[in-house]
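Bench notes, afternoon.
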Amino acid sequence: MGNVIETENLIKIYGQTPAVDRVSLHVPKGSIYGLLGRNGAGKTTIMRMLLNLIRPNSGTILLFGDDHRSNSGASYRRVGSIIETPGFYENLTGRENL
């Protein structure tokens, strides 16, 4: 089985503050993973990078073997996420938000 998610040395810095520092993940197909940590540990930032909502300062992300920098969108059509605080785009319909 291949990995569905792979990250290598992800780094995200906001100003002078590191939010994510050299995170590497390997999530095999068919597995279930959770990100656990205290507030401010970088869990949401990691998810936002995995979903291509924000870009890492450095490091690589592979979803289904596709590099996040390719921006093809094919791998992102296979991914869904539910975040803790629901956020809706006001300019989209209910169906489009889903």
